[in-house]
Amino acid sequence: MTDAAKGAKILGVRHLSDNQVVYTDWTCSGIEFSANITELSNITVTASSNAPCYFKAYVDGTLWKNGTSDYYTVNGESTIVLQKVPVGTHTVRLVKATGYTLAQAELRKIEVCGSISATADKELYIEFLGDSISCGWGVVGSHDGGYASQDGTLAYPYLVADALNADYSIMGLSGRGVIYGTDLNFDKDYLKASPSRSETEYGFARQADIVVINLGTNDRGNHADSAEFEAGYLRLLERVFAKNGDDCIVYCLWGAMNDAYSTQIQNAIASYQASHSTAKIYTLELAASTVAGGAPSWGHPSIEDHAGYTTALTNALKNVIS
Asked: Do residue 265 and residue 138 come from a single domain?
């Protein structure tokens, strides 16, 4: 499976690959292709991961279950088998439902009875920068944030991209903030294709039309210095526009689990716009999570909360791209 072969479109955009594999590290990263199936048969994808993770498969937009389960587990060397795909031409999508910090995975080979070709890029490309909320932390299972309780396809970034018929990348790092959680601030990690794998920088060959930033929850919850946070948020805004161009639309979110230093976010926006008066930066306060705080959920938004965020953000974005 190679980029050069063009047999499958790579979803999630932020990836490293070599001549043998496509890396699917980020939330909802994966592949999509058109398959011309010549006889009733299975589609088999060879995969591997450094830790257990879930993938989900869709055929012509419909979830293709693994028996009775919604999920295909990849743990070490594995195969994902979509059983009994009927004759005809189908759009097949395979995405990693598990977030970056729990597992990094690779797709190595596709086997079909027939032929495949990559689906076309969509007109709109949205990039999401976030934390565990963007990864769908705790929306299913025991709600403890492990791989069996995390599903990015049920979180608002993937759902918003689907609602707007957009390509996407979801750079979600659980436990991270703008300045909290690493020696590298988020604006530095933003340059990386896959920070845990390599120092290789992401090429930004395709610039984002829209960048959605939902960071600050972990900074606020862990009492990061507010002045340093504000400075870090300003650096991130500068980096986002530098890499995506002045015409990029930026939407800044907060509110799902705490105020996420909303005052400092707005101060950083004002500072940026003071020297970039035409910058298109918008804000949206999300409704507070309906889930009680404390273990095991720690107050992470529910499926219903994410549905509400999806509606609010989709409507907001429609207003600025129409």
From this structure: yes
Same domain, 164 and 129: yes
pLDDT profile of the chain (322 residues), mean per 10? 69 72 92 95 96 98 97 97 97 97 93 93 97 96 92 98 97 95 86 84 92 97 96 97 97 97 98 97 98 93 97 97 84
Whether residue 308 sits in one domain with residue 184? yes
Between strands 249-254 and 210-214, the pairing is parallel
Structure tokens at 290: 């309906």
CA proximity to 254, closest of 178, 163, 170: 178
Clarify whether residues 20 and 41 are in a common domain: yes
Q: Is residue 3 part of a domain?
A: no
Per DSSP, what are the bridge partners of residue 45? 80, 110
pTM of the model: 0.96
Query: SS3 of 271, please?
Result: helix
Interatomic CA distance for residues 290 and 305, integer angstroms: 7
Q: Is 56 exposed, middle or buried (0-12, 13-18, 19+ CB in 10 A)?
A: buried
Q: Is the dihedral of CA 74, 182, 149, 252 positive or negative?
A: negative
